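Appendix B, Record 12. Input sequence as logged:
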Amino acid sequence: MEQAVQPGSTPAKQVLIVDDEITITWLLRETLEQLSNCRIWTAAGGEEALALCETISFDLIITDYKMPGMDGLTLAGAIRRLQPYTVIVLLTGGSSEDICQRASALAIRKILNKPLRLSIIRETITKIFTEMD
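Logged structural output:
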């Protein structure tokens, strides 16, 4: 279901949440729905996310690093080929120097560590949205 956009307002931001943990997906969706002017999509893994990216242009993608099949950095690389200007935020249970270097090479905007703090998520996404406008 599309969110109504008021005349003269900016179009809703298209946001994709990618995580194989349904609890994390739900938590992020609930948190982001409190922000104004965004439409939330979800995917349970990399393949599903890429299928959505082939038909929808996302402003922001929040992806977990560790998922079955395709990890978040592999997904980010594939997204960069399809949507080079999409902002990507990576979630990880523990970042390493290798993950940080690979994320930097893929122009990932931010790495957020789990367990997630909702205040940090809201602050990070609000800042990203402000920079987009």
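Residues 13-132 form a domain with the Rossmann fold fold (CATH 3.40.50.2300).
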